[in-house]
Amino acid sequence: MSSAVLISSLLIIAILALGASTRVLTHSVERRFPPTGEFADIGGVQLHSIDVSVAPQADLLPMVFIHGAAGNAHDLYGAFGERLAGRCRMVFVDRPGAGYSTRSGRADTSPQVQARAIAGLIERLGIDPAVIVGHSFGGAVAAALAVHHPESVAGIVLIAPASHPWPGHALTWYYDLANLPGFGRAFAHLIAVPFGNLLYRRAVKSVFEPDRPPHDYARRSATRLVLRPTSFHANAADVGALKAHLKLLSPRYREIGAPVTIITGDSDNVVSPHLHAKGLERDIEGARLVWLEGRGHMPTYTATEEIVTEIEALNARIGDNRSDKRKSA
Fold first, then answer.
1. DSSP code per residue over 264-292
2. How are beta strands 45-52 and 38-42 bridged, if at all?
3. CA-closest candidate to residue 107, choices 229, 241, 11
4. What are the residue ranges spanned by the domains of the chain?
5. Furthest-apart CA pair in the chain: how many Å?
6. What's residue 119's pLDDT?
7. Are residues 270 and 207 in contact, defined by beta-carbon separation less than 8 angstroms?
8. What is the spatial distance between Cα 308 and Cα 139, in angstroms, rounded to a whole number?
9. What is the pLDDT of residues 278-303, one digit of tens each?
10. So what CATH class is 36-168+244-328?
């Protein structure tokens, strides 16, 4: 057997082994974390969301939670679902292409397009206007909702938000590979899933730094769902296109009239608090900035009580604003 034939044979075996490993790991994570919510067809996109019904003693406005990159509806449900149970109706959304939501095409990488789908879901559920909580990439989607669909938004809470274009390139190498034409899909289907599973714990640790992730974060967040070829590729496309979309969206933040609270850790190594959170405070009149000392990118899990306190305060501000409008009418 010639060396060329041997190398070709070994390459084929490696590709088959990686493909088989990807299929096994994908089926395993889907069995572990099946869809637990409801599906709604919104403009050709099947949106999956976990809708937590309200109890009689509700004291907060309806809330819609929008997760960040590499996340899904369970990520914020794991942080706030039990903590706010009974206090309001909560809808935790899989963004288009994430979790079990589909996407209609490349345009769905846009926070503005994703916001349109979520606005359609809010209208379908009859919970408008709602308080929108967006984390990381979800912060850009929440801001786009407030800009383009103000009728859907009573107020917004932006947690470690990605909101402004950043200098340079600054994307992780595997996002660059996944976004290469042609090769990107092969990378997502053959390499990203098996190696992503090997590196999952290290990646979680890095996202939380300098904080430590809860011991049960993987179970509560179901974030291993991103380690499926289609989800991984869609997530990489979202992140790869984000800077360009923020160049279009960020000049319009001055149009936001709903009450806004921005919450950020001053030690966030994923999304610069000085560029993004302070930029939002500058651009949105009356926005409240909450600066969490020593916290990283995941205050959703490491500063949950502080965030709940700010959600309560935002609801009070919304109530005061409505009262003032009724008096002046």
1. EETT-SSS-IIIIIHHHHHHSTT-EEEEE
2. antiparallel
3. 241
4. 36-168+244-328
5. 89
6. 98
7. yes
8. 17
9. 999 999 999 999 999 999 999 999 99
10. alpha beta
